[in-house]
Amino acid sequence: MTYEAINFGKKFGLFDEQWQPKVIAEMNDYQFKLVRLQGDFIWHDHKNTDETFIVLEGVLRIDFRDGAVQLSAGDMFVVPKGVEHKPYAEHEVKLLLIEPRGILNTGHVGGERTAENDVWI
Amino acid sequence: MTYEAINFGKKFGLFDEQWQPKVIAEMNDYQFKLVRLQGDFIWHDHKNTDETFIVLEGVLRIDFRDGAVQLSAGDMFVVPKGVEHKPYAEHEVKLLLIEPRGILNTGHVGGERTAENDVWI
Lengths: 121, 121
Hints:
2 copies of one chain form a homodimer.
Chain A (H helix, E strand, L loop, with lengths): L5 E2 H5 L9 E6 L2 E11 L10 E7 L1 E6 L2 E6 L2 E5 L5 E16 L21
Antiparallel strand pairs in A: 2-3, 3-8, 4-7, 4-8, 5-6, 5-8
């Protein structure tokens, strides 16, 4: 039989909304999520896990309390667990996030910016 | 301070050899590895873990006992644990692999195609 690859571009064609991660695959108890970001997020951290950002299109800045990192397409960065961070994108950026299943986008902070979790496309 | 992103292209500029995965980052107990493949590999599986393939450049075919999947740049595929597979690339393909730390490229099969593990660039 022919198995089907998961294509990032095709999956991004299925949604337009920003700040709402969509799960596209799982590896053991980890999830791969696509997300569109633009503008400023809130400060948060993930107490029990690292979080991986891979930029597929656009430019992302991740602010830390003591600095920042800028990521363009073809760049990745792993935010260590417990480290406060705040993503920012002037223009829309398309990201692949990798983190354990069940992790909320706002960490333990909660509030109105918390996206629905575990939404598959 | 300014943190540095990990750039796939820059990292690929640091090595030419094929079939020798290089670790570029860790997330918890998982590793991100870049690898250049060309030609045929051996049949193998990973008994205890899924394995993620993301194609960055070129075309990869992964054969299974009951079929195959073809991946181009911007495609990903998760090979489930315990599933025998055999990567193949007619021309050199550049991949990002994601799997737990300590996984050998040949699974439990061993032999001359087994690459040195945990080599960082």
